[in-house]
Structures are given as structure tokens and as C-alpha cells.
Amino acid sequence: MAVSRRGLELAFLVLAGAVSTMAYVSVYAGRFREIDRRSILYGLVFVAIFLALHLLVRRRLPQADPTVLPLVALLCAIGLTEIFRIRPALALLQGQWLIVGAALFALTVLVVRDHARLDRYRYLIGVTGLLLLLAPMVFGTTVNGARLWLRVAGMSIQPAEFAKLALVVFLAGYLDDRKVLLSVPTRHVLMVPVPAGRYFAPVAAMAALALAMLVLMRDFGTALLFMAIFVALLYMATNRLAYVLAGGGLFVAVAAAAVRLVPHVHERFAIWLDPWSRADTSGYQLLQSLFTIADGGLAGAGFGRGFLLYSARRPVVPDLQTDFIFAAVANEAGLLGAAGLLLLYLLLVWRGFSIALQAPDGFSKLLAAGLSAALGLQAFIIVGGVTRLIPLTGITLPFVSYGGSSITANFVLVALLLMVSHRTAVLREGDAAARLRLAGEG
Amino acid sequence: MNRAITRVFLVGVALFVALLANLSWIMVARAGWYRERPENRRAIAQELKIPRGRLLGFDGSVIAGRERRSGFYRRTYPQGPLAPQFIGYDSVQYGRSGVEAALNDVLTGQSGSAGAQGLLDRLLGRRPEGADVRLTLVPAVQKAAQQALAGRKGAVVVLDPRTGALIAAASAPGYDPARLEDAWPRLSRDPAAPLLDRCTQGLYVPGSAFKVVTAAAALESGKVTPQTRFVDTGTYVVFGGKVTNYGGAVYGPHDFTTALTLSVNTTFARVGDTLGRRRLVEAMRRFGFYEVPPLPLPAGEVMASGRYRDGRLLSPDAYFDRLAVAWLACGQERLLATPLQMALVAAAVANDGRVMRPYFVQEVRTPAGKVTQTARPAAWRRAMSPATAQTLNVMMQRVVNAGTGTAAALQGVPVAGKTGTAERGDGTNLAWFIAFAPADDPRVALAVVLEDTMATGGEVAAPVAAAVMREALRQPALP
Q: Whole-model pTM above 0.80?
């Protein structure tokens, strides 16, 4: 069984590698009308990273889900290809971040070994996450009106990406412990069983944090992401719709207040409602994104062949390689390619939720489901933003956007998912020896 | 717990379905709508990445070249401003005009890329490349015309009467096309209208220059010959009004040739009255009046000549009284004509009565050097019989030899012409001269108009015509 799972993963990886190579060659040929040795080197380094990860998983997490890593590889390949397409110099940096991400993946697998151990450091992780989240509000630099960034040793770090992980780990443990308490209804409101008022305290605390994020970070997207993760976890832990309604209602109220009170958030909201009257100023970026996406048509011009650059350093949409990379993919790969990219995320989220459903204990379930929800929500918020389905907000498209914080944090996320998957399989079908080994380490 | 997890996943699926639906809406259903939005300049910007074909003069020199700057091509004008209004502009900010607009598909290589070759190019990722267009415009003649107009307001249109090729189209004041985008706010508000191509869009009262059309109608009718005698008393009374001569002159007894030579209004009023409204308008239509000349510029950039009221062209069938007919025969009375149309009048007489279809593209040459299009001169209409044209030719030579247009005479070359002076209410004149040369073997026909002058057509417009014709006849080859 173990062999066939990893064999499957290897087969998927080879497939992903082949698809990525084709996309990459297309970009290279489109740009330079030739294929040289350097371009093959890029490909080899990429293949080597995922081969190394595959070998690590084969050794340490042999029973883990075989589709997650190939899906991640495909997403990374699409991102790397498109970044190379937009600005070749950044692709090299992104490649380095990929190596750092892979190293963090390995570190997580080797050091943590069993995700259950994380629960012991629940509060430490929770507080660290909170500090990470709050740090840029105090020490951060403002980019595009939002304070999301920390400058450390010449590098820009987006701590929210890591805080996201910490929050999920903390909440999974905390809520699993208190789920019974939180879900016992003590009274009924309009026929709906509702827990006692004091159990809403965590909801209120989280809403307060979201408000702080909106006011201090002036970022709608991160606030929405954290609030949604929180509400989803609370609901999954307690099975109480009341929390969803309360959380959703509170967030709407908080967001509405922020729209009125915080100019930056207000502007974002106004652009969403009417970008046309701001076509040359604040609405420019969103409109150019829409125009670029609309130009993709059904099949797109092909990787490397779309119209994405005014000049080497001036893409048609500002921040095309980071927040707006989806517009670039949609332009060059068309509706089919863009829908395919969304499908990859859906598949990845689906695998994540499957892992959660199969997991034997509440903490593992909540951890896997929370991490998957975080990944899917993040993709939804940014894709919905650049397509004007929801107000636009600057967060990254996981694994695809250019950015070190995003890619490294998401590699850790995937490592945790695979660890849950492996442990589940071992406990369900594994041999007694493996079970003993787990127990001994745990 | 699993039920709640499944529900959360299903909510996630619903969110992705929403993304997909919205995406399909944008990329397929509304794609055309987004493309057509005025805020969307991707199409123009994309075309700026295509090496735009150059516009060459008839002599092969570059009028509008190209240079590449940070990935985008922009126009260069190695000979300075040469017919800037006629050549037009290609601007992301202000759109396109003139030849740049009319030939955009050719200049961006899009016209030839349809079909199998275009698909192959697309599959191979080949960028289209614009074709070079050699115009019929002769830079030397164009420069002479611009020089002659320097410091004045007006226009010069030069045609080859045998082919209809546009040799020069000068409109003053002009502007520097290389600095168009910076200067646009000032140029577009300038009351002297430097952006306007007066050659094809300037509507002027043609005055006595129009008498060539009246004379053609009269000769064709058989009611008048060059020798027909008239007596001028200084006024021609008709329909409760009267027509008088320029400057209140009285010419006494004279023949029809002299009436044209000295531009006697009363005689032309009498002739027009005799011909009647229908026959006069019919003659005008044979010259191309009441119709947009088929010069292939963008719609709206060539105006029709004819009778106008409140800025709108009147129907050729519209009634007007005998006094108005008498004044129309002298080129007045709501009559407005473009310099292009008046040049076509001169060209018609020069080309044995046949008006050629005006054009400006000599040949189109692809980047590979293949000529894909060459000029094929074609007749547009017949204005008069060859015999009438020959008679009128001789009469118009008298204008230059012994009449109002002596300032247009050239050494050793017979010139035929007609002056025109239209008085404006504000005390200034509109000075006209239409001409062709050599009269015995015409190779150039032209119209000159000058605004805001105190002098007559014979005094100021005829010398301009002479200078331009002299330069044109010096050319080794004309289209």
C-alpha cells in the first residue's frame, strides 16, 4: 500500500513536471524565440526540489495522500512560469523562495514529526501568531495604503501569512477542547438553540481583532480571511449555526463601520462599486485587471504570447506578478486555463477536507479542515477581488503569486496537511509496529 | 463534526462555482463589451508594439518614420512637419486621424494577416509588421506649397489631372506632429484651427473661381460661345434684386471670353439666369459638387461642396429664386466649396472634361519587399465634353495671359487659371486661384485659397499658385 501511494505521487509529479515544462518552454520560446541551456537548468532545479520533497515524504510520511504534493508542484510551476514571463529576474528569486519553502517543509516534517505535538504548545503558538499579526501594525511599513509588511534585514516579510498558520493550530486545539462546552445550548432564540452568552466571548474577541486589523492594518482581505477561518473552525467544532450567524453578522457590522471610518477601506469599497468613474486614478488597477482578463477569451493567446507588458518593468496591471497574477494567467491561458487553475485549488482543498474527514481525532480534523479552508479562502478572496466579485484586497494567490512569505508559509501548511494524512492512514490501516512507533514518539 | 466539515467544504465549492461563473461572464459573455470600453486602451497600446509601416513620399523619402522606445514604436518626422493635417496622427491619448487612420490596418500589418497565413503567423507567435506606404505626395512640391503659405491662413491642393493623384495638400497654420500630444490642449483651442485640414474640410465661398463651372455649363448648353457678345452696364437686375461687379466696375460691350478673363459678374449672372437653376446645379454635380469626393480618408474628414444653410448641405433639388441663381453663377449665395473640390474643377478642364478619382496611395510594400497594392487611376465622372474642355482651356489661358491672373504666368509654360475674390462682411477677402499647367499638356492642377487678406485672388493667390506650379513642373516625375 505504501509503495503504491508514493508510486502514484511520483507518477503525478512526473505528469505535473511534464505539463510545467511545456508551459515554461512556451514562455521561453514566446519571449526569446529559442530554447537555451539556462532554461533547461531552471526546469531541472524545479524538478529537483519536488523530487527531494517526494523522497522525504517517501521516507517520513509514506502513508500520506499522494495527490497533494503534485498539485502544489503544478501551482508552483504555473506561478514560476508566469513570473518568469512577466519579469525573468524575479523568477530566479522566486525559485530561491521555493527552495526556502521546501526547506521549511522538510524542517516541519523532521522537527515536528507528529502534528499532535503541536497541541502541547497551543498557547505559545497562539500568542506568537497574535504577535506576528500585530507586529506590522506597530512596526510595519505601508504598501498600497495597507500596513501588512515588516522590513527585516532588507527583506519585506508579511507576518500575516505565518500568523494564519499559528491561528489555525491554536484554534484547532482550543476549540477541540471546548467544543462540548461551546455547543451545549442553554436557551432558544426564535426556535434556534443558542449557547449561553458567555460562550460568545471568543467570537467577540475575534471580531475585535478583525476590527483592529481593519483599522490598524487598513486591510479588508486579511481581516476577512481571519474572521472566516475562525467562524468556519468554530462551526466545524460545535456544529452550531448560531456562531456562523453571530460571526458573520458581527463581521458585516465591523466592516460596515470600517468602510465609513477608515478612508483606505472606504476607497477600496467605492472602487468595487464603481471603478469606471475612477478609471484613471484609484480604479485603474482593477479596470486594467478586468480588461486583461477579458482579453484572454476562451483559450488565451498561450503562455508567453499575451499582451502583459508595456515595457520590461511596466506590466499592463500594476503588481501583476503578485496580487494580480491570476489576471496574467487568465489572459494567456484563457478561460479554460483560468478555470483549470481554480480547479487545481478546488482539488487541493478537496484533498485537505478528505484528510480532515478521515482523521481519527478532533484536533487533527479541525487542523486539516482549518488549513484547507485557509488555503481555499485565500485563493477565493484574491481571485474574487481581481475579477470584481468582491472588493479587491491585496493578498497573494497561494503558491502562484510572487512573494517569499506566502510561498514558505504555504509549504509549511502543506507539510502539516500531509502529516495529518499520514498519521490517519497509519492509525487506520498501518501495521502494529508503525502504530507503536507513533505512540512512542507521540 | 464530519457533517459540519462536509458542509463547510460544500460552501467552499459554492464559492468556487461563483468564481467560475463570474469568470465565464467576464471572459466570454462580456469580453467584447470590455474590449469596446473607452477606458480600455489595450488595443491601441498593443498596436504601438507593432513596427508601424512608414509613410513615404512619391520620391521614396520618409515623411513619417518610426523609432522604437522602450518597446513601443513612435513616429518620427525626418523632413519636419510635412502635410501634418493630411498625414494625421496616431495617438493613444487622442486617437487617429488622416492617412494614419485611413491606412491603419495596412500600417499595422493587419489587413494581410487574415486567413491561413495569419493563423500560421499566430501559431508561430510571429508579430505582425506594418507595411510601408508610398504616397503620391511629392515632398518638394508640398514644401513649396507650405513655404508659400507660411505666415498666412489658407490651403493649397495640387493634383495630377491625368490620374487624380494628390501631389500636395498644404493647410496653414500647421503644427509640429512630433510634439502633437504636448501641444494638443493649445492646438485644439486655437481659433486659427491648426488641426483642421483646410484642403478637405475647409468650406469657403468660391467666388469667381466658380465661374469655370458656370462657363462649362453655358458652353455645354450651346446657348453661349466664347464669341457671344454681352454689354455690361455695371448691374444686372433680376427678381427684384441686382448683381454688381467687383469694385463697382463697368465693362461695356465684351465677349464671353473677356467676361471670364476680367471676371464680369453681371455677364455671368445673365448667363446663369439664362441657364436656370436646374441646369446650373446639374453642371455642378457633374464636377462632383453635392457629393463627398472619393478621397479615401476617414469618414467626416472630407467635406462635400455645394449650397449650405446653417452648416448643413442643402439638397441639390432645393428651390432657390432667380436672383439666387444669378449670384450662384458668380460663386456666391450660400455656395461653399473645399479647396480639394476647386482643384478637381481645374483638373476636369485640364483632363479633357474627365474628373479622375482622387487618391493618395501610390503603392503598399510589405516588410518582405512585396508590393501588394499599386495605384490604379480611374475616372470618377465626366464634367463636360472634350470640346468644351478645350474651349474653356483656351479661355482660362487668357485669364493668365491678359486678365486677372497674370501673376500666375510662368516663363515658357502656358498656364490656364481663374481668380476668385470673395468679400467677407468684416472687410477682409477670401482670395482664390485655380489653375493647371502646362495648358497644352497639363501635368498639374491646383487650387489656392487664402483667408483674411485685403487683396484679390489675382494679387495674392496667383503668385502662390505660380510658385507651387513652378516647383511641380521641375520634378523629374509626377504620379
A: no
